[in-house]
Structure formats: C-alpha cells, structure tokens
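Teaching soon. Invent one.


***
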Amino acid sequence: MKLNKIKAMIPVATILFATSITSCMDDLNDGNLDPNVTAEADINALYSKCYAGLIMEGNDGSADFTIQDAGRSTLLRNIFNFNVLPTDEAICWWSDGGIVDICYNQCVPSTPTLKFLYYRLVSNIGFCNHFLEIAESKGADATLIAEVRLLRAYNNYLMLDFFGDPSFTTSISAEAPKQAHAYNSKYVEGQSYSRAELLAMGREYMFNWVKSEIEAAEPNLLPAQPKNDTEADYGRVDKAAAWLLLSRLYLNAGVYLNNDGQNNPYWAEALNYAEKVIGSGYSLFDDSKISAAATSNGYKPYDLLFMGDNGSNGASCEAILPLKQDGVTTRGWGGSRFFIAAMWGESDGKYTTKTVTNLGPGTTDGSWSGMRCRPEFLEVFTSSPATYVGKTSAEIRAASSDDRAIFYGKGRTLDLATNTSYPQGIATPKWNNNYSTGATPHDPTDVDIDFFLFRAAEAYLNAAEAEIHINGATSTKAKQYMDAIRNRAHAGVKSTYSLSDVLDERAREFYFEGYRRVDLIRFNKFGGQDSYNWSYKNGVADGSNKIKFDKSRNLFPLPSSEIMANSNLIQIDGYSEIE
C-alpha cells in the first residue's frame, strides 16, 4: 500500500512549520507514528495519518495494530461490516472472523472482527490525540488543528454509535483509559450502578463531548466549498463536514439520550445544520452537471458517484468528505477496493456480474464473491423482487423507474437459501472502477474510486425527516427536499411524504454505504421489535417469521480482549463480560 496521495493533501501552510514534506513521507514509510513512542514526531506525518486512518490500513501494507490480514483493519470495511451486514440490506457467507455471526445479529465480545473495529477507532483517536498534543508547540495552523479535532470527533461519534460507553481519552498516556461514563458529572465513584445506568451516562457524556468538540472546531475550518481531485484542498474537511456531522448527531439524539429514536428533543437542530449544508456550495450531482460523454456512454448521475473517475467527473460537487484513492499512489485492500471486490464475483475466469453498461468491474481484483442483497431490502425498489432473477444490471435498469436500482440477477436466486455461496441472493455492482468517459484507470488492479464518506444527499434527507417531525407530512419544505433526491434518480415524486417514505428513501439512496443500522435503530425497527423482519434476522432463515432480538443488541459489546486488559472497563449492558 502507498500513501503518497494522502500525503499530498498536506496544505501549503504546513510547509511553514516543518522542514519539508519529504521528512513527513520518510516518517510514514519508516512507520515512526506510534503515539505511544516518545521519538520526535513529524507533525505533517501525523496530520496525514489522521486522514489516512479513515480509509487506509497503515504504512507500507501493514496495519496500525496487530492483525493477520491488514485489509480487515480499515475503518470503511468495518463500518460496512457493522452498519450494513446486521441489517435487512446485505448478507455475506464468509466464515472467517465471525462475519456470519454479525450478519445473524449474534456478535459477542469474542467475535474476532469486533476487535478490528474497536482497535481501528482506538488507533485513529490515538493519532489525533498525538497531533493535538504537540500541534501548537510545532506551530501548526489553526485550520489544521480544527480539522484534526473534527476527525477525532467523528471517530468518537462512531465509538458512541457502535458501543455507547466506550473507553475514552483525549491524551497520550501509559495509563489505561477510563470508560466514558466515568467522565459524566452525574457519576459518583464508589457508588453502585446498574449497567443500564452506566450505559446511559456514557452515552450522554459522549453525545455532549462530540457536540462540543465539533462546535469548537467549526469556526476555524475551511469555508464550505466543493472541489475536484485536481485542487489542493480536495479531501480536507471543511465547515460543511462539521454541519453534516452535527445534523447526523442531532438526528440520532433520541437514540443516544433516550434509547428511543423517535423521542428526540433535537429535531430543530438536526434540520438547522442540514439546511446549512444545503445552502452551501455543495449540491446534488444531477442532469445539469453530468457530461455529454458520460451520458452518451449510458450513465446516469447516480452512477458517477461510485465510479473510478468520481473525483473528476463532476460528482465531487456532492462529496463533502471524499476519502482519496488512486490505483498508483494511494491504494489498499479495505477502502474503495473492498466495495468492488467483496460485491463482485467470477466463475471460470469470467466475471459473473456486470455494470449497468455491461462492463466488468474495471479492476482485475473483483472476485471476492461475498456480499449480496437480502430480498426484503429489494422491496424498497420493487414490489416483485423476483423479477430481478435472471436479469442483467442493464435489463433491471431499463425496467426500473429509479436509477439507483443497480442490481444483477443473472445466474442468481432471490432467496438466500443456506447462505453458503455467492449466487444465493441478488448482487449489486454499485461500485466499479470504470471511467464515465471511457478512459483507462490508472492501474489494472488497484482502484481510483474516491469514497464519498459524507455526501450532500444526506443533508437533504436529514432535513426532510426532521422537518416532518416538526411540521408534519404535509410540509412543503420536506417535499422539496425529497423531490430533489428523487428527481436526481429520475424517480417519480409524491404529493406528500411520510416518515416511512423517508426511511425507504434513505435505503434507496445509501444502500451498502454504511447507514442502514443507524437508520433502522432510529426508526425503532432493529433490536427489541418483531414488526419488521428480514431473512436471517437473528439467524432465522425465513424472513416472514416474527423474530426479535434484544434491544441491547442495538449496540455492540466491548471486545473481550479489552475487558481483560483494562480493569477500568465494564461490559456494555446486555452482554456477558467475555463470552
């Protein structure tokens, strides 16, 4: 793996307080970035590392922590594993790392992949802490400090969302970190509490800390302005990233503060920050922005968000936080490459999946043959998912009233059967490394697709949902936001939209991007209910059964290895200590 493109995002301002970018690259290549090592740190290297941790494994192909397969250590891959695979959206048949257990809502503290998520977040937060501890003494610009504060806040937001009451620290120390609840002013050391009470205090503390940290960072961030991959600041967070993260935090405040996604005192704040994004320079990539070449090659605007040239084909007008990948200079196993390889497959040396324009994946590494769609998810696109069976992506696109229906059913079944092979379930070639212009990617194997971690589309759907909560389904403002999303996809619009419509729209817009678990929890359609069901929910193959797993499973447990290593930690409510 190479990190040159990540390093190249270091702005000119950093050169003023460091000897050279070359020394930064040397530090990265030498691996001298362990925040627990006292050697003199290179501020540029740390700054780059804080960004790289969102999509890269580590330095020179190795991971930032001990793991047999470095590709499994990446944040993006683990966001997919834990926000998509436990839901109605996707399923995987791989037996390694406890992936099937995650798919079946049966993750436990000893599940191997759970450690990869937790250690990635701990690692990312550690690098951010290290940068922030030395930044001022190294003469770091206030904008760079603000960026890293926002990146640290995002990683801690994920800790809140996945674990509720994780370990928490803002400094580099040899002492074992305490759990978040211990920092809540309501917590009295030595007093007896139930695990549910500790969890509530941990969630409350993390929510307030993340909120205050984003608010503190926002004034010094770059102005909200979209860029393409030829511009120096492409890939850096700006004010719009802070606004969208605050909108997301407030949208889910009911979950974090009341354990009930619909009991939310912050709908107005979620709407306000979403509308700040909508009113900025970022916009939906639609027909008015797509090139004639892309159109003549058979593509729709939504397609270009997930293609090899998405940093330059115009789609980056929507990319509030693009994570940069390049087949020559920035490449790895668990970033954008994962989103092709894990979703595509081959048989007898031929790809068994094709794009909407009947092309292959645009990379020779497109055959991990793992992820497929659960049939219940497909119902947000069609009342008859069985009609997808036997059809190519091009045929499904031609018959669909929504451009986002990017699925492949030829040689496949709708039913997941025993979940033991790739053809069991409909595939999606949503990501591919082809260029919309027909140009050749930079490398035959490693991909050029930048992953748009934050997209402007989220602001529109956050705003619509919050607005309906505030002013009801007849709100003209909510209709305006929903119509914009649906018009981009050439889907029909409605006279009014309900909250259920918003949930379905989020599924259509963001499938396989890492949103679904959070959305289902907010709508009380995940743990603790049996009104909405799906195939292999809680491991039961028949999705028509009324199946319920405990609401405590809305969160994941702390890894057994952490519980055993740190006596300050208490397992999350609903889980055994180290099962």
